[in-house]
Amino acid sequence: MTLLCIASYEKGFDFLREAKRQGARVLLLTSLSLRGKVNWPQEAIDDIFYMPDDGGQWNREHTLHAVAHLMRENKIDRIVPLDDFDLELAAFLREHFRLPGLSESSTRFFRDKLAMRVQASAAGLDVPDFVGVLNFAEVDAFTKRIPAPWVLKPRMMAGAIGIKKIESAEQLWPLIHGMGDQASYFLLERYAPGEVFHVDSVVYQGEVVFAIASGYGTPPMDTSHTGGIFTTRILEYGSETERRLIEMNSRVLKAMGLAHGVSHTEFILGRDGRLYFLETSARVGGANIANLVEAASGLNPWVEWARLEAAPDTYALPALHRSYAGLIVCLARQDWPDTSGFDDPEVCWRMNKKNHVGLIVRSDDRAKVAGLLDSYTARIKEHFLAVLPPKERPTQ
Fold this sequence. Notes:
The chain has 396 residues and is an alpha+beta fold. It has helices at 13-21, 60-71, 87-97, 104-111, 113-122, 136-145, 169-179, 220-226, 240-256, 289-297, 301-310, 366-383; strands spanning 2-7, 25-31, 47-51, 78-81, 130-132, 150-154, 164-166, 186-190, 194-204, 207-216, 230-234, 260-270, 275-279, 324-331, 347-350, 356-363. The protein has three domains: 2-101, Rossmann fold (3-Layer(aba) Sandwich); 129-190, ATP-grasp fold, A domain (Dna Ligase, domain 1, 2-Layer Sandwich); 194-383, D-amino Acid Aminotransferase, Chain A, domain 1 (2-Layer Sandwich). The strands form three sheets. Strands 13-12-9-10-11-14-16-15 form an eight-stranded antiparallel β-sheet, sandwiched between helices. A four-stranded parallel β-sheet has the order 3-2-1-4. The chain has a four-stranded antiparallel β-sheet with strand order 5-8-6-7, sandwiched between helices.
């Protein structure tokens, strides 16, 4: 099995290592701007190729020609995008070279926020009221029918990047008109206050074979826009909220047609008590959520994804356990912050990244995890936290 992994950003080290461990031949296509800046796991990669890029963006036709030249002497079995922003390019290449995996059309359900909402609605799932910024009369009718505030979302960005909270029509229309030809790449959605959750899954032969539910502290959109500390923790196993999330997650992934791979899906529990679908993806959750999942369950989503791709016919889940875990991450004003003062025995992971603080705590006692997260949040806010303006586009 030869895998061509696409990574326009620094992602997927555990995937690369596990794919090699499974006996695959691993080729990596990455951004030229990352050359010499990223210490890729060379022991897991048979060859690395670089594409010229502009902030991680590659020319599609040039990439297709490069891969075509590569395939003249390499029989590639699968193309695997390691970052959310690489999904569309991978699908484009699969279509041209007739390789298995998500097509360009099916990839839309995991990248395009409008496509996934239309599909979820058609499947009978609850979603916040929305309208594509396509027909201005429909947008105007939406603003008159659905009270503000709303959120204006880029259809193809990941997470909270580029999202704006809109308080009135007077604020909205200058933004829309200012977009010009880019307006159709946005949607407008009812702002739904409530608790935000995520479910991280492994899907094999069309069935969700593993799923674990977690709840964010501050909603990611709020953290992204106002600055602050990102936290998430595993929900109580067997609780009503966990049961509802796991069940709705299966319905979402079936509706979107994911037959094989991993997913990170987000939901909001509205103040009306209803559970709403927010968005899904066909990739590992970002913000170090994979480490959280591994701490709580023993399952590393990157590793399982590599096993699914490299040895799909023999796939079986690893041995699992059930612990509680919590993750805390933020920007730090120190270049290399010293987190040695967080010395509780429950600390099982520390982030090693410039200008960042990140910790995971794990315990069989859910209340212990919650207490440590609350305590650590207060201490980090006082001694480390830095705040930068929200991102309008991804950065490497």
